Automatic annotation (TrEMBL):
Residues 2-230 form the ABC transporter domain. One of its GO terms (molecular function) is ATP hydrolysis activity. One of its GO terms (biological process) is L-amino acid transport. Belongs to the ABC transporter superfamily. The keyword rRNA-binding does not apply. InterPro entries: AAA+_ATPase, ABC_transporter-like_ATP-bd, ABC_transptr_urea_ATP-bd_UrtE, BCAA_Transport_ATP-bd_LivF, P-loop_NTPase. Keywords: Amino-acid transport, ATP-binding, Nucleotide-binding, Transport. This is Urea ABC transporter, ATPase protein UrtE. It comes from Desulfosporosinus metallidurans.
Length: 230
Protein backbone atom coordinates (compact mmCIF):
# COMPACT_ATOMS: atom_id res chain seq x y z
CA UNK A 1 0.00 0.00 0.00
CA UNK A 2 2.79 2.42 0.98
CA UNK A 3 6.11 2.05 -0.81
CA UNK A 4 9.02 4.35 0.00
CA UNK A 5 12.18 4.02 -2.09
CA UNK A 6 15.58 5.74 -1.83
CA UNK A 7 14.07 8.63 0.13
CA UNK A 8 16.17 11.57 1.29
CA UNK A 9 15.09 14.53 3.39
CA UNK A 10 16.95 17.64 4.54
CA UNK A 11 16.64 20.44 7.06
CA UNK A 12 18.60 23.24 5.43
CA UNK A 13 21.90 21.67 4.33
CA UNK A 14 21.71 18.85 6.88
CA UNK A 15 20.60 15.45 5.64
CA UNK A 16 18.11 13.80 8.00
CA UNK A 17 16.98 10.78 5.99
CA UNK A 18 19.44 8.89 3.84
CA UNK A 19 18.26 6.43 1.18
CA UNK A 20 15.24 5.13 3.13
CA UNK A 21 13.46 2.07 1.76
CA UNK A 22 10.32 0.96 3.60
CA UNK A 23 7.14 -0.88 2.67
CA UNK A 24 3.78 -1.06 4.45
CA UNK A 25 1.72 -3.85 2.81
CA UNK A 26 -2.05 -3.56 2.76
CA UNK A 27 -3.70 -4.97 5.88
CA UNK A 28 -0.53 -5.08 7.99
CA UNK A 29 0.77 -3.21 11.03
CA UNK A 30 4.34 -2.00 10.55
CA UNK A 31 6.42 -0.32 13.26
CA UNK A 32 9.45 1.93 12.86
CA UNK A 33 11.67 1.80 15.95
CA UNK A 34 14.50 4.05 16.99
CA UNK A 35 15.86 6.37 19.66
CA UNK A 36 14.95 10.06 19.85
CA UNK A 37 16.49 12.23 17.17
CA UNK A 38 17.26 9.54 14.57
CA UNK A 39 14.76 10.83 11.97
CA UNK A 40 11.58 8.86 12.65
CA UNK A 41 9.25 11.84 12.89
CA UNK A 42 10.90 13.46 9.87
CA UNK A 43 10.15 10.28 7.94
CA UNK A 44 6.45 10.47 8.84
CA UNK A 45 6.35 14.16 7.92
CA UNK A 46 7.91 13.24 4.59
CA UNK A 47 5.07 10.80 3.92
CA UNK A 48 2.58 13.58 4.67
CA UNK A 49 4.36 16.15 2.52
CA UNK A 50 5.40 18.31 5.47
CA UNK A 51 9.13 18.02 4.75
CA UNK A 52 10.93 18.54 1.44
CA UNK A 53 12.16 15.29 -0.11
CA UNK A 54 14.45 16.17 -3.04
CA UNK A 55 15.37 12.53 -3.71
CA UNK A 56 13.40 9.31 -3.72
CA UNK A 57 9.88 8.06 -4.24
CA UNK A 58 6.73 7.76 -2.12
CA UNK A 59 3.94 5.68 -3.64
CA UNK A 60 0.51 5.14 -2.13
CA UNK A 61 -1.67 2.44 -3.68
CA UNK A 62 0.67 2.45 -6.65
CA UNK A 63 0.40 6.20 -7.26
CA UNK A 64 3.36 8.54 -6.95
CA UNK A 65 2.63 11.17 -4.28
CA UNK A 66 6.14 12.52 -3.60
CA UNK A 67 5.36 15.97 -5.01
CA UNK A 68 1.70 16.10 -3.98
CA UNK A 69 0.49 18.56 -1.28
CA UNK A 70 -0.50 17.38 2.17
CA UNK A 71 -4.25 17.82 1.61
CA UNK A 72 -4.06 15.58 -1.47
CA UNK A 73 -2.42 12.80 0.54
CA UNK A 74 -5.05 13.12 3.26
CA UNK A 75 -7.86 12.89 0.73
CA UNK A 76 -6.27 9.82 -0.79
CA UNK A 77 -6.80 8.12 2.57
CA UNK A 78 -3.73 8.76 4.75
CA UNK A 79 -4.48 9.88 8.32
CA UNK A 80 -1.68 11.10 10.57
CA UNK A 81 -1.67 11.36 14.37
CA UNK A 82 1.43 13.45 15.19
CA UNK A 83 3.62 13.16 18.25
CA UNK A 84 2.09 15.32 20.96
CA UNK A 85 -1.42 14.68 19.57
CA UNK A 86 -2.11 18.28 18.41
CA UNK A 87 -5.73 18.37 19.50
CA UNK A 88 -7.39 21.78 19.79
CA UNK A 89 -7.58 22.49 23.54
CA UNK A 90 -10.26 25.19 23.34
CA UNK A 91 -12.59 23.09 21.19
CA UNK A 92 -14.88 20.43 22.61
CA UNK A 93 -14.29 16.75 22.02
CA UNK A 94 -17.16 16.76 19.52
CA UNK A 95 -15.72 19.75 17.66
CA UNK A 96 -12.29 18.11 17.52
CA UNK A 97 -13.88 15.01 16.01
CA UNK A 98 -15.78 17.07 13.42
CA UNK A 99 -12.46 18.53 12.26
CA UNK A 100 -11.46 15.00 11.26
CA UNK A 101 -14.01 15.22 8.46
CA UNK A 102 -11.94 17.96 6.79
CA UNK A 103 -9.63 15.25 5.48
CA UNK A 104 -12.46 14.16 3.18
CA UNK A 105 -13.57 17.65 2.27
CA UNK A 106 -15.83 18.16 5.27
CA UNK A 107 -18.35 15.65 3.99
CA UNK A 108 -19.97 12.86 5.97
CA UNK A 109 -20.68 12.36 9.65
CA UNK A 110 -19.06 10.77 12.68
CA UNK A 111 -19.61 7.02 12.63
CA UNK A 112 -20.94 5.62 15.90
CA UNK A 113 -18.27 2.91 15.78
CA UNK A 114 -15.82 5.61 16.93
CA UNK A 115 -17.55 5.62 20.30
CA UNK A 116 -17.52 1.83 20.42
CA UNK A 117 -13.75 1.93 20.02
CA UNK A 118 -13.32 4.76 22.56
CA UNK A 119 -16.34 4.69 24.91
CA UNK A 120 -14.81 7.34 27.19
CA UNK A 121 -15.14 9.96 24.43
CA UNK A 122 -18.91 9.62 24.21
CA UNK A 123 -19.19 10.68 27.86
CA UNK A 124 -17.03 13.75 27.22
CA UNK A 125 -18.36 15.21 23.97
CA UNK A 126 -19.02 18.64 25.49
CA UNK A 127 -15.75 18.86 27.41
CA UNK A 128 -12.89 20.92 26.01
CA UNK A 129 -9.99 18.94 24.63
CA UNK A 130 -7.57 20.73 26.94
CA UNK A 131 -9.42 19.41 29.99
CA UNK A 132 -8.77 15.78 29.07
CA UNK A 133 -5.95 13.68 30.50
CA UNK A 134 -3.00 12.77 28.29
CA UNK A 135 -4.41 9.31 27.63
CA UNK A 136 -7.85 10.68 26.78
CA UNK A 137 -6.28 13.24 24.44
CA UNK A 138 -4.42 10.45 22.66
CA UNK A 139 -7.64 8.51 22.23
CA UNK A 140 -9.29 11.66 20.89
CA UNK A 141 -6.44 12.25 18.43
CA UNK A 142 -6.69 8.69 17.10
CA UNK A 143 -10.49 8.91 16.92
CA UNK A 144 -10.25 12.20 15.00
CA UNK A 145 -7.93 10.53 12.49
CA UNK A 146 -10.38 7.65 12.07
CA UNK A 147 -13.41 9.86 11.40
CA UNK A 148 -12.43 10.23 7.72
CA UNK A 149 -12.27 6.42 7.35
CA UNK A 150 -8.65 6.28 6.18
CA UNK A 151 -6.94 3.53 4.25
CA UNK A 152 -3.65 4.07 6.10
CA UNK A 153 -3.37 5.24 9.71
CA UNK A 154 -0.02 6.70 10.80
CA UNK A 155 0.73 7.05 14.51
CA UNK A 156 3.76 8.87 15.91
CA UNK A 157 4.71 7.67 19.43
CA UNK A 158 1.15 6.74 20.51
CA UNK A 159 2.34 5.48 23.93
CA UNK A 160 4.36 8.57 24.86
CA UNK A 161 3.37 9.96 28.26
CA UNK A 162 0.46 7.54 28.59
CA UNK A 163 -0.32 5.41 31.63
CA UNK A 164 -0.07 1.60 31.17
CA UNK A 165 -3.83 0.93 31.28
CA UNK A 166 -4.44 3.38 28.42
CA UNK A 167 -1.50 1.95 26.45
CA UNK A 168 -3.21 -1.44 26.67
CA UNK A 169 -6.48 0.11 25.51
CA UNK A 170 -4.81 1.80 22.54
CA UNK A 171 -3.08 -1.48 21.65
CA UNK A 172 -6.44 -3.26 21.76
CA UNK A 173 -8.01 -0.67 19.45
CA UNK A 174 -5.11 -0.86 16.98
CA UNK A 175 -5.38 -4.64 16.74
CA UNK A 176 -9.16 -4.48 16.48
CA UNK A 177 -9.01 -1.96 13.63
CA UNK A 178 -6.49 -4.12 11.83
CA UNK A 179 -8.24 -7.47 12.35
CA UNK A 180 -11.86 -6.39 11.91
CA UNK A 181 -11.59 -3.47 9.48
CA UNK A 182 -8.37 -4.59 7.74
CA UNK A 183 -6.93 -1.13 8.36
CA UNK A 184 -3.29 -0.71 7.39
CA UNK A 185 -1.24 0.97 10.13
CA UNK A 186 2.26 2.48 10.36
CA UNK A 187 3.54 3.26 13.86
CA UNK A 188 6.65 5.08 15.04
CA UNK A 189 7.47 3.88 18.53
CA UNK A 190 10.18 3.37 21.15
CA UNK A 191 8.25 1.09 23.50
CA UNK A 192 9.48 -2.32 22.33
CA UNK A 193 6.92 -4.41 24.23
CA UNK A 194 4.11 -2.48 22.55
CA UNK A 195 5.68 -3.04 19.12
CA UNK A 196 6.02 -6.76 19.74
CA UNK A 197 2.39 -6.94 20.89
CA UNK A 198 0.74 -5.13 17.96
CA UNK A 199 2.90 -5.28 14.83
CA UNK A 200 3.52 -7.72 11.98
CA UNK A 201 6.79 -6.24 10.72
CA UNK A 202 9.39 -3.82 12.06
CA UNK A 203 12.17 -1.52 10.91
CA UNK A 204 14.88 0.05 13.07
CA UNK A 205 16.31 3.47 12.22
CA UNK A 206 19.64 4.93 13.31
CA UNK A 207 20.93 8.35 12.21
CA UNK A 208 18.54 8.56 9.27
CA UNK A 209 19.27 5.04 8.05
CA UNK A 210 17.31 1.79 8.22
CA UNK A 211 19.75 -0.57 9.91
CA UNK A 212 17.65 -3.71 10.40
CA UNK A 213 14.17 -5.05 9.69
CA UNK A 214 12.17 -8.24 9.94
CA UNK A 215 9.01 -10.03 10.99
CA UNK A 216 8.06 -9.12 14.53
CA UNK A 217 7.48 -12.75 15.48
CA UNK A 218 11.18 -13.35 14.76
CA UNK A 219 12.49 -10.24 16.52
CA UNK A 220 15.53 -10.49 18.77
CA UNK A 221 14.35 -8.21 21.56
CA UNK A 222 17.72 -8.16 23.33
CA UNK A 223 19.55 -7.04 20.19
CA UNK A 224 16.95 -4.36 19.38
CA UNK A 225 16.98 -3.10 22.95
CA UNK A 226 20.75 -2.64 22.75
CA UNK A 227 20.32 -0.57 19.59
CA UNK A 228 17.66 1.53 21.29
CA UNK A 229 19.90 2.12 24.31
CA UNK A 230 23.03 3.22 22.46
Amino acid sequence: MLDVANLEAYYGETIILNNINLCVPKGQIVCLLGRNGVGKTTFLKSIMGLVKTPQGSIKFNGKEITTKPTYFRARQGISYVPQGRDIFPQLTVHENLLLGLEACGGDGSIDETIYELFPVLKTMLKRKGGDLSGGQQQQLAIARALVSKPKLLILDEPTEGIQPSVIQEIGRVIKQLNHEANLTILIVEQYLEFVVDVSDYYYVMEKGLIVTKGFTKEINQEEIQKRMAI
